[in-house]
Amino acid sequence: MCNLYSNRMSQHEMRRIFDVVPGLDHLGNAAEWPAVWPKYEAPVVRLAPDGARELVSAHWGFLTPAVSKKTGKPIAPVAWNNARDDKMTGGLWKDSFLNRRCLIPATSFREAKGRSPATDVWFALAGDDDRPPFAFAGLWRAGQPGVAGDQGAWLTHTMITTTANDLVRPVHPTRMPVILDPQDHEQWLKGSPAQAMALLRPYPADRMRIVREGVGILADGSP
């Protein structure tokens, strides 16, 4: 389960990498995102109504209402920041998988290993750059049914997870985020459900690396 990632791309880089024209960049004057936690806002690339790509800001995690087990009264909504690849055709994810897929720009993600204290392990792609840019496979939705207040109107995104590869497995034995190759971005955004499902697979371990590791490393800075 991934609950922390980083995006150190500038807006200009994201527009170039993800083929977004300046007029469809709705981020305003934004800075980098060295640590994105559930419920935090971060950029996603989605399709505008005319089919062009646009950059928007969305809170991480689909929200669902929750109540206290002790009192039965409403409490803070739950943020579902990960969606399993084998659950796309039902429940919370189905409509977004069919109609609202997105790209989540990133430069690394963290998994925690062990407890008391946990070791933070940051993963990135291999390459000549310090943190090569990439995109997670994501879903988005506007409005959070059953959630009251301002949060009920949030635009949210979630990332899809799949089986862990050989690099991630020693840290998280079961799951890792789905990372998409650039040539697959268009298929993810516009392809049929079957074409999109075919992209939900582990990223090759030999094309990734660990870039930071230690206790309390909660933001992706320089090694």
UniProtKB/TrEMBL annotation:
What InterPro entries has UniProt attached to this entry?
Answer: SRAP, SRAP-like
UniProt keywords (A-Z) are: Covalent protein-DNA linkage, DNA damage, DNA-binding, Hydrolase, Lyase, Protease
| Broad class of enzyme this protein falls into | hydrolase
What organism is recorded for this protein?
Paracoccus aerius
Listed EC numbers:
3.4.-.-
Pfam families from the entry? SRAP
Highest taxon above the source species: Bacteria
Q: What is this protein called?
A: Abasic site processing protein
Report the sequence similarity comment from the record.
Belongs to the SOS response-associated peptidase family.
